[in-house]
Amino acid sequence: MTTAFPKAKAESWRTRVWRWGFNLFPAYRGTGGRVTYIAPDWKEVHVALPLNWRTRNYVGTIFGGSLYGAIDPIYMLMLIHTLGPGYIVWDKAATIRFRKPGKATLYARFGLSDEELGAIRTLTAQHPSVDRVYPVELVDKNGVVHASFEKTLYIRRKGVAS
Fold this sequence. Notes:
Elements: H1 13-24, H2 26-29, E1 34-38, E2 44-49, H3 64-71, H4 74-83, E3 87-98, E4 106-111, H5 114-126, E5 129-139, E6 145-157
Antiparallel strand pairs: 1-2, 2-4, 3-6, 5-6
């Protein structure tokens, strides 16, 4: 399976092993999604979601549960890896907007900037916890958006009560 997005940096051996393990993990494997790339610094992740017998719904398009399941844990894991062991990160809420039926493989690109990570560190130094909202889209190979999501994540420093 190929990805619709160019890879910024070659995967490290460690992120390649994480990707393999992630794709073999039964809870994620059941979504039908596949992680196709994890940047060595965990600031970028790519996911592909094919239309196949496991993801196809009654009307022949990608099942909505597969659409959401494929993107669900990604930002949480990215933040856990980029912020480090001094932080607690949990998914808090999500919204999904179905825009077009998925009739072919769909792709998502997740990214975290140094500015965003700095803002989180600054805010969690000033407040017990913060909520951050991250948009993500599932697109086809031509960049047409089939589903839009907003993921809200709860973040706090360890040892700080919220």
